[in-house]
Write a structure and sequence with these properties.
Elements: E1 3-7, H1 13-22, E2 26-30, E3 42-45, H2 50-59, H3 62-71, E4 76-79, H4 81-86, E5 87-90, E6 100-105, E7 115-122, E8 126-133, E9 137-141, E10 146-151, E11 154-160, E12 163-166, H5 177-186
This protein binds glutamine.
Length: about 190
């Protein structure tokens, strides 16, 4: 059984834990650096507020340890603010982990369109519901990054080796297939 450490300093971590638990994974919350010593097979960085999550993980000393884990191959899934934390370039904002060769623009889907639902074809998974909440837009994809899902020609889910990241919130739709895809990466 995979043991998944879910960053739980802020944001929608509970929903990820519920979905992953439903899929048979064992989850634990990461709130301090000692939690990272519990032996995570994989990490999840949820949606929330990237500036707050970035500051808290930096102040708590979690950020550099997570960065080391991701760079050394631990599978990670970042959703929405989690994508921002992973991105190597944040237009007009701070870079946090910087392990994923993409550029993102925060809150880029517009004020009125801040939250909306759509559907998209997710490579190897099929058509999935896409739930956007003041989502970051992926504005550049670096070499070696696979685009797994697009909406109107814009990448909304990418994979770079052990890193899976998306602009939307698969944990809020009741559709478990994106998390199952992630657990397949972990095995
Ligand atoms: N707008 C948030 C940010 O920039 C992300 C929103 C989310 O995670 N749902 O951090």
């Amino acid at each position: 059984m995979s043991r998944i450490g879910v960053l739980a300093v802020q944001g929608a971590f509970r929903e990820h834990i519920d979905v992953l638990t439903d899929l048979g994974a064992e989850c634990f919350e990461i709130r301090k650096t000692a939690d990272l010593e519990k032996g995570a097979d994989a990490l999840v960085i949820p949606g929330g507020e990237s500036t707050v999550m970035g500051k808290l993980t930096r102040d708590l000393g979690i950020l550099p340890v997570m960065g080391e884990m991701v760079r050394s191959g631990t599978p990670v899934m970042g959703t929405c603010a989690g994508l921002i934390l992973l991105a190597e370039e944040v237009e007009g904002g701070d870079v946090h982990l910087g392990t994923l060769p993409v550029a993102v623009r925060r809150n880029a889907y517009g004020r009125q369109l801040g939250s909306f639902s759509a559907e998209g074809e997710f490579a190897g998974v099929g058509r999935v519901p896409l739930e956007f909440i003041r989502a970051p837009m992926i504005t550049r994809v670096g070499e070696g990054v696979d685009v797994l899902c697009e909406l109107d020609g814009v990448p909304v889910a990418v994979r770079y080796g052990n890193q899976l990241a998306m602009s939307f919130h698969p944990e809020l739709t009741g559709d478990l297939r994106v998390h199952r895809y992630f657990l397949d990466m972990v095995r």
